[in-house]
Every structure is written in structure tokens, then in C-alpha cells.
Amino acid sequence: MARADQVEIRARIVIEQPVAGVLHSLQSKDGHPLDPKRSAQGEPLAFDFPLRIASGPKFFGDQVRREGKERRFVYIRVGQSAGDFASPWSRRMKIDVHDTPPELLDRAMADGGGVLEIIVDGTARDGTPACATVRPTRRRVV
Known about the structure:
There is one protein chain. The relative contact order is 0.24. This protein has one helix at residues 102-109; strands at residues 7-16, 23-27, 33-38, 45-54, 58-60, 64-67, 71-79, 90-96, 115-121, 132-133, 138-141. Strand 2 (23-27) and strand 3 form a beta hairpin. The longest helix is centred in the last third of the chain and has 8 residues, at 102-109. The chain has one helix and eleven strands. It has one domain (3-141). 6% of the residues lie in helices and 47% in strands. The protein is mainly beta. Strands 2, 3, 6, 7, 8 and 10 form a six-stranded mixed β-sheet that branches.
């Protein structure tokens, strides 16, 4: 799909309650860590990135990965995967964007629209960093 048929919005993944001291990062277009951050005491981490949307809706962007015809997601790298080779963890969070409610996309795409925030919990039930498919706890436009 031509880029001219796409609308770019600002998107943000917020990781609430990340495991303190563990490095997190977006996954870049080439698969490497991007914008690494570490929570000192479990405070939230935020990762901003552009997200392009076309009719359908269909999702595009350097951080957007695809699986099948519809599923689109963004990876957050954790521990060794984020560049901390001393970490005991080497994980990725897979955060879906394709199932974002249309009304939120409309608000984010409107003139002067805000940032689409996707909030996830960064700690798994066993107290280790969350990984695999991590379902959003909230989505909103700010």
C-alpha cells in the first residue's frame, strides 16, 4: 500500500510495573534494541514510535511486525535481548496493535490527535519480566 494512503500517528507503549533493574527496549527495524531503558524501582517505562494506519485498518511502521493476514504487533526486548548481556533473562514481549478499537484510532488520527497509548503489565505472575504475548491492560489517547 502506498505511503500516501496511510496516516501517521504517534504511538506509545507504557510498561507498568516492570521488574526493577531489567533493561527493556523497542525492537528496531533490523531486529536490534532501540531506545533501551531500565526502571530503577519499578516505575513505568514508555517507548514512543510512529505508527502508520491505512484503511481496513492496516498497520505499518518500522516497529510493526506481522503474523498472518491480520495480526500486527510491536516487540519490546527484555534483558539480554535488549542489550544487557549480564541479565539472567533473554525475552521479548509481543504487544498487539491490530486489535486497537477503531474509535481510539479515529481520535488519534483526528487533526491535533493525541498519542495512542498501549499500557501493559511488565511483570509476569511469577515475578519475572513479562514475555510472549502480553495483553494490554488499557488503551487510550492522551
